[in-house]
Amino acid sequence: MTGGLQRLASTIVLVGFSFLLTALVLWTSGYGVGDVFSGTIQGAITATGAATSTVRWAIPLLLIGLGVVIGFRAGFFNIGGQGQFYMGACAALVVSLGWRGGPATLVILCGTAAAIIAGSAWSLLPGYLRVRFGTDEVLTTLMMNFIGALVLQYLTAGPMRNPSGTGQTAASERIPEAFRITDSSGVSATVLLLVGGVAVLVWLLLERTRFGLTMTLVGRNPTMARWQGIDVRRVGLVTFGLSGALAGLAGAVELHGPGARLVTGFSPEVGFTAVVVALVGLLSVWGTVVAAIFFGGLQSAILFLPIVTDLPPPALVLLHGMVAFLVTVKFRSARRRRAPLVPEALAD
Amino acid sequence: MTVPSGPAPAAVPAVRCRSLGVSFGAVRALHDVSLDLGPGRIHALVGQNGAGKTTLAKVLGGLQAPDSGDVHVAGRKLPSGDVRAARAAGLAMVHQHFSLPPSFTVAEALELSAFRPTGRPVYRRAELRRRWQSAAAEMGGEAVLSTRVRDLPVETRQSLEIVRALATDARIVILDEPTALLTPAAIDTLFERLRRLRDDGVTVLVVLHKLREVAAVADTVSVLRDGELVLGPSEMSEVSQGRLSDAIVGPASEADRAVGVETTADGGRRTLLELVRVSSRESAFEPGLRSIDLSVETREIVGVAGVEGNGQRSLVSVIAGLGAVVEGSVVLGGTEMTRAPPARRRQRGLRLVPFDRNSEGISRVAPVWLNQSALRLIGWRQRRLPLISLRYYKRQAAEAMDHWQVRYDSVTQPAESLSGGNVQRLILSREMAPGLEVLVAAQPTRGLDFSATNFVRRSLRRLRDSGAGVLLVSSDLDELFELSDRLLVMYGGSIVARFEAPYDRRAVGDAMTGALR
Predict the structure, then answer these.
(1) In what order do the strands lie in the sheet with B76-77?
(2) Between A and B, how many residue pairs show a Cβ–Cβ distance under 8 A?
(3) Do B377 and A217 make contact, defined as CB atoms within 8 angstroms?
(4) Considering just the CA atoms, what is the radius of gyration of chain B in Å?
(5) What's the number of CA atoms in the CB half-sphere (13 Å) around residue A83?
(6) A211 to chain B: which residues are within 8 Å by CB?
């Protein structure tokens, strides 16, 4: 389909353009552009452990990003991934620390289930407000992020605090080693299977089920969907629930995987980057997989670069920001051309 | 109607186009169209859906740059595809689709598009209201200046679009299918306005569908067919009705194939849909239903006549399950369904052709196959496997659309790329799928061209003959008289009269205007 190819091409051009702009800024600031980019390649792919690190960072981006894709399919903009991610991690932490003596497999399963429930609950509240009163979900999901961050802070600085911790930021106690599904690299066969399985399931849901088609129809024209007998509110709630569940799952993977404990304000941008990942991935499942690996690589490179160059760590975040900015501009202009979402159809 | 004795032959035409050509990809929208429009006259432009009328109107209004040819206004060449230049040259355009910002109030929308704004950067609501009071009064209905555009019913929105264009000091006004959404009374008002404009020396080009309307208002008529000008501009007095329809339809027009409809109705006579003393809450622009009694049986078309805004929308919403019933009961296929969700009613064989096909009937941005398959998404034919085959869905959609003679290029094209008649065929192809018991058709032919209108009417009749029940809500009396086995008239949310064929146009008209009460 030429429309799809065109969108793909324009996204690639856009990412390339971001690289150019970043190079320009770095060059005018007097850094060796060549060094920086070769360092980026090293940090993302070639250096020891770099590829693993790329995958490690791609995992939460992918899970949360898929949640964003699901939301968009039904016409909702869930940018509350950060808060839902935190709530998922917190729920898994409470289960793991509260049931230290439990059998490992069971605790991990319960922790993950709790994380999924917490993540979807954090998303269902704005979802309910949206379908019942027509409250703009962009605003509410964004605001819920701050509450989620405070809940995390409360737990790590309060009841779950590690009293012997010496770091400057408060952190929780570590969960028992047996409760982890990866080592500190954050990558293991279990996690890869899990994430790959989730991606396939999301793809099947969106592209090969009637519910997926229903979501598409609701996203394209809720008024028409109502006339066709579709329960638009229920579809909206399920969509919000699924979207938050994936972010919650990402939180569980983080805790049971590389984290093992929670630090106040950890991974502070992952939820927002995930929105960009979904947009760069053209809101398709496989596109999001590719975009997640790309941004995972960037994240890995950001951590690696200070080792090989004199570049201050925030400099590469610039590239990140460029892509986010350009993608948003492109997305906004594309969205304006689309039929507007009719809020009355949802709010009755 | 008096036709002024035409301008002197030597007069410069108000609008002259020379060999205009426009193509969209492989589709030739206009081909070598040359047209002179004399000043101070009403020119009608007719043709079937997809004949190029809207494209021509857009080229004249500067919204579409032609691939070849040019447009002259009062002897001066217009830069192609330049809206500002067209406006500056005195051209104003009334679009087929709404163009005013939905969140503006009526007064703000009028002010926005005025040629001479108040001149101050800050405005006061009261002042705007004074300024536009008379213009809004011409819209008719209960339009209020402080109402937001999005809250207006379609009819009033359409009138507002016209008022807006006429409120500018245009010398040439182009109206693209302005009557498509208007009630007969509003059409008369509109035509009266057009005549007044003409008498003031304004040149009017109006795209019309119905020959009766052309005869009522036009001085000259031009016919487009497949992008080519096949007739005109000819003086109305010199063209016979027969020649006009021949020009529109073209030689040897393909006879529409018979379209069969499968229903589950058997031989016996049953009541398929029954409303018993149903009342509903009033909406912003319509009275609620007041104790409506109504039934539709097998093998009949029940017509609902009425001036728009007398509760017809409430009626259709209540039957669809989208409007709240305050009192009374709705019975579908013998089952009480007053509080049943829309999906259950659909499962009982209720099918709907909604009022506004572009917003309620289809999703404009979704692909045609998904629009066609929408009814399959309700879970009443659950299969064991939750997974579906898109290929199967697309093939089924393509088969149904071919059966209903929808003209499309590919099942994945967005529905908005279809013409109005084809959108309605798409909706019919979906709603008339097997399982249908009773069809509620709201204004099913509004805005459609001759052949699409005939197609829809034939389909409804065939549906009735195959045993289904049809509730036909329409403001077109000819259509109602032609199709209905029984006719109900709504006024102020009640059914004020019931008629059986043969119908007395006068009596029905009296009932519609409330003269019976």
Answers:
(1) B27-37, B15-24, B68-73, B76-77
(2) 86
(3) yes
(4) 24
(5) 21
(6) 386
Residue B29 corresponds to which tokens in the numbers above? 């929208």
Spacing of C-alpha B50 from chain mean position: 15
Is the Cβ pair A229, B378 closer than 8 Å? yes
- Using a CB–CB cutoff of 8 Å, tell me whether B346 touches chain A: yes
The interface pTM score, or ipTM, of the predicted complex is: 0.84
Check if B88 contacts A (Cβ < 8 Å).
Answer: no
pTM score, whole prediction: 0.74
CA-to-CA dists, residue B380 to A231, B351, B375, angstroms: 14, 14, 10
Angle between helices A314-337 and A2-28 (to 10 degrees): 150
CA distance A252 to A115: 6
Query: What number of helices (H) and strands (E) belong to chain B?
Result: 16, 20
Taking CA–CA distances from B317, the nearest residue in chain A reads: A227
Query: How confident is the model over B84-99, as pLDDT tens digits?
Result: 788 778 888 887 666 7
CA angle A316, A70, A261 (to 5 degrees): 55
Q: What is the spatial distance between Cα B286 and Cα B475, in angstroms, rounded to a whole number?
A: 15
Minimal-distance CA residue of chain A relative to B374: A228
Vertex B505: Cα angle to B501 and B506 (nearest 5): 130
For residue B413, the surrounding DSSP H or E stretch is none
pLDDT tens figures, B461-472: 999 998 899 999
Which of B168-182, B333-347, B493-507 has the highest mean predicted lDDT (pLDDT)? B333-347
Rounded distance between C-alpha atoms, residue A324 and residue A297, angstroms:
15
- Residue A325, beta-bridge partner list: none
Can you give the residue ranges of every domain in chain A? 58-282
DSSP H helices in B48-148: 53-60, 83-88, 106-112, 125-137
Chain B CB contacts of A231 under 8 Å are 341-343
Residue A241 phi, psi dihedral angles, 5° rounding? -60, -45
What are the start-end ranges of the H helices in A99-231? 104-133, 137-157, 189-208, 210-220, 222-227
The residues near A176 (Cβ < 8 Å, ≥ 6 apart) are: A96, A100, A104
Contact: A213, B412; criterion CB under 8 Å: no
Q: Render pLDDT for A30-60 as a digit per residue (tens, 0 to 9).
A: 888 888 888 888 988 988 889 999 999 999 9
On whether any CB of chain B is under 8 Å from the CB of A339, the answer is yes
- Structure tokens belonging to residue A184: 């500190």
- HSE at residue A114, side-chain half, CA atoms within 13 A, is 22
